Amino acid sequence: MLASVLQDPTVVTLATLVRDLAFVVHAGGIAAFALMAALSARVGGPPTAQVLRIYRGFGPGLGVSLGLTIFGALLAHYGTVGAFSWGTDAATGGWAGLLAWMVFFVAWVSNIQLEVWTLEPLRKLDPEGTGHATDAAGLDHATRRVIRHLGVQAGLWGLIVVLARFATTTMASA
Question: What is the pTM of this model?
Answer without folding.
Answer: 0.89
